[in-house]
Amino acid sequence: MIEAGADVNAPSGEKGLTPLMLIAIHKKSVHREQHVIEGAEPGEIANLLIAKGAEVNATDTADETALMFAAANNNAAMIGLLIQAGADPLAVASDDRVALDIARENRHDEAEKALRLFTPRKKSEAQ
């Protein structure tokens, strides 16, 4: 569909989710059999979308980004991929949360660790 001209940033549904937001929810399959059944890994799809112009900092109707969706789903691999592609870990959703807040609230340790690697600390936290 992309090769036929589909818009990789086209929002869909009530919340206006982009394809990159939707793929950020999915984790890499653990079992080879599952990979064969499901097809390409989420990271492969995300890389393709980004290569074709997907905006890594696009927001939905609640100003949430693909990085926030990855944090909400404890998807550390996707967090690394998105940040390397230019995702802003300090982007703020309409509820005043950043991706790190979302990972913490959901007690997603892997996501929180990944985000801490890339999120600048506030002066108040550094002391």
From TrEMBL:
The keyword rRNA-binding does not apply. ANK repeats lie at residues 62-94. SMART domains: ANK. Pfam families: Ank_2. Keywords: ANK repeat, Repeat. It comes from the Bacteria. This is Uncharacterized protein. It comes from Enterovibrio coralii.
